[in-house]
Predict the structure.
Amino acid sequence: MGYSSILDWVKFNDPMLNEFYAYKVYNLPYDIGYKLWELIGGALAWLINLIFPGNGFSVTLISSDLLSNFFAIVFMVVVIFAVAFLINLTMIWEERKVLGRMMDRRATRIGPLGYLQNLADGLKTFLKENITPDKADKKGYMWALTLVIGTSVLLACMIPLSHRWFIVDYNTGLLLIFGLFAIAPFMILVAGWAQNNKYSLLGGMRAAAQMISYEVPILLVFASVALMAGSFNINDIVNMQAETMWFIIPQILGFLVFIVAAIAEAERIPFDLPEAEAELVEGWQTEYSGMKWGLIMLGDYFRGYVACALIVILFLGGWYLPFFDVGMQQDWLPEIVFLLKVFLVFFVFIWVRAAHCRVRTDQILNIGWKVLLPLSVINLVIAAVITYGGWL
Amino acid sequence: MPLKYLDKYPKKAWRSLWVLKPMWVTLKKMFKTTLHRPVTIMYPYEKEWIPDNYRGRPGLKFEKCIGCGICERMCPTKCIDIVDADDNGKTVQRPQVFLGRCMMCGYCAEYCPVNAMIVTPDYELAAYTREELVYGPRKLAWPNATEMMEVHLEERLLSDVKRGETGKNVAFYSVDRPELHAKLCISCQRCAKVCPTDAVEMYEAGVNDKGKPIKLPRFDNDRCVCCEKCMDVCPKDAITIKEVL
Amino acid sequence: MADMWITMGPQHPFSHGLWTLKIRADGEIVKEAEPVVGYLHRGWEKECENRTYPLIIPMADRLCYSASMTWAHVYCKVVEEALEVELSDRAKYLRVIADEICRIQSHLMWLAAMGTDLGNLTIFLWALREREFFLDLNVKLCGQRLTTNYPRIGGVRNDMPYLFERDCMRVVDRFEKVMWEIVAMMDGSSIFLSRMRGVGVINRKDAANYGLTGPVMRGSGVDFDIRRDDPYCNYDQLDWEVAVSKDGDAYARYAVRIEEMFQSCEIIRQAMVKLKGLPRTDPVRFKVPRKVPAGTHFARLEDPRGESLMYLISDGTDKPYRLKVRSPIFVNVSASKHFVEGVRIADIPAIMGTLDMCLGETDR
């Protein structure tokens, strides 16, 4: 080994040659993390070598495959979270901007195009006093909050942005995402109970009722998509759509059902009963103050992002555009295509929010059980007929 | 005159199924406001145009004021006090307004007989302490006072209308005058001292039983502004206001 | 789930002001309701006994922030009845125009609040945007946006300013065009209709027995409007219709208010034409005596929210002996027990929103 230059230590290897590499296919965030560690670890090894020349420590440990792999995974997680967070900020910015234009008013003002307004609001929320109600059940109060936010963030990180940007390439990826998606409403019920506040309790009850009635159609739509794709793997579903056609065309009913149910699951305005501010002051969030509330809002938008991303993955062809060769598109930036689609779907969410009022409690259950459930069953039948009839 | 909305509003159930119309309207609005500017006025940086007759805080033309105290009497919230002010070494009486209590009704400007009180377009009145909100006679001044900021009290006499006269408007300070009940007067001369316009002149109306001269006030109708100060100060209630209707 | 008492108010997003609605809820269903008012009691009537007659006008503005013109008007009207002063035609039409501007902006304020109650902020902002034009008219006419202080005993404060007629016509024409856009936001949305249809129903008989007035009463089919049935200020010389709907639910009250806005535009337009026919030298304000002869008098007129009435006992001095205010909202809110019991909690904002609460005049 030469000891003359830092370049001896920073080699930018191909991560797939690492013997501890965990994925079968190329993973972009892992690659970024790997290169980052090569930069940082290489510089570290070089410094140690300058101080203790010829120690062998740098070669055997710092730039070893094992440690490189370990730190690459750590950096990869950070990179994926940072990107998810940035996407989230962009979505909040999009919502505020579009909503402002639709309402004929200026929206955000700080920073270029008002982009930094979210950070300013976050800072302001951070400076608020952090109050815990005296008679609240402290454990339930904090744990419910933690799980609501935690599962939302975890979900947002688990959404793959492309065939090369993922955490796990799981055969039951869709089921896992759905299972995590369904935890939060339970925790909302717990939070509503733990706060010792009647508004929160009512909000929690509403969240539970809403969840039960809207997860059934979502599951049925999931099932019909999985039936058509023949897999619960997200990558397979997207590839299937690239090979045949976007599932929105055969499953337009399922798409409509899913978009309504996703708005309800993300608790956005036509269906935001758990936090209906007109009758239940802030719903189940009433007693959460300061940054706790800020994180809840952030978590809400993470869930909105997940809902939009699921729509894009299940119906709108994921990260591929139609009429272009798949192999060619893999060399472009499929992440950008995916995000543009997500923002477009989120625009529809915002649009619905700007145009419509809040639905009443019994009406939301009526829509869930009497409209969406039959429609999703019909959709399942159509999917089954198409799949087993061999028309796909 | 036909009903414009009630005949049109949707009574049929099938029209209720329509959900896309508001979405279409909002989308149109979004394109419109993206191409043009939203109606928002970015307040601290740009301000709405307000006309000259806008009733902000009261203002005072120090030179014109005669210190009659009508504004003090007509203030609904009693936020005006008449205080001593220094006018080139001379002590004069001028109003002072406590803006923490002022409700910007504009009565002081409306009832001012010499139009010294004006309404100003100043509405940004936040202050850190209550003391800053007490606007003394000099602080009340508004340098860019225009003609429109004066509020003129224009009333028509009902008697004029009955007689068929048109086009003559009056104000109470130009027609209502104090009236003396000479029997009650004790010649104390307080009314003459207190009159802000020197409209009260004491004249000798004769001698009393002891041979001393009786002085009675005489009111100069041209100078009087009907401020009722003489009426208030009279110890024997010998002066009343005679209203012209 | 066991019953529980929920205290909605006095600081609660649905209560537009300081009042409390105590409800006993069985899950989502309201079993029992009890309105509590009085948080905003300022002793208005008592304070009036300590002020001379002209000084009460700006205080009457403060009874309700969005109906200031009509409250000052009803006060001036009762004093004029005591003094037996007949206004000039010019002052009458000016009052009509001012009242109708006030009515439109008050209804727009209601519409905006209604929008947020139902969770739609777009309606709120669009309605407030339109309201701004009418407030600008107020500024032009009398110098301030909300607390107008425009009517005077014996007339109005000032004549129309320069070019006011042109501005007024422009605003009214624009409003009638844009209002259909805002109406499309609500009538085109099945969600809005399903929220408003069939909730808070009160029939014709109950409405009359509760003493409801204004759009709430007309929404349940009682064809009564003081402007037409007990005309004042030359309302009988203008050609317009009373908005009446027979359904009696929240949607009917909404529809009546929307129709009233359109009719108010028509009234403004016709009053402007009539005003143009009068000579400019006509008086707008008569000089009235300071002391009101002893006696009892009352006057009423059509407020944006219903029938506002003032009852005056004068004792011959320049201050009223007693001034009693009959507030339409105070009566309407007493019917909230009837409205709310049996509905769902989510319906409370929709029903109470259509009552158009204003607590300044309720508690006085």
Chain A has 14 helices and no strands. The two ends of chain A are 58 Å apart (CA to CA).
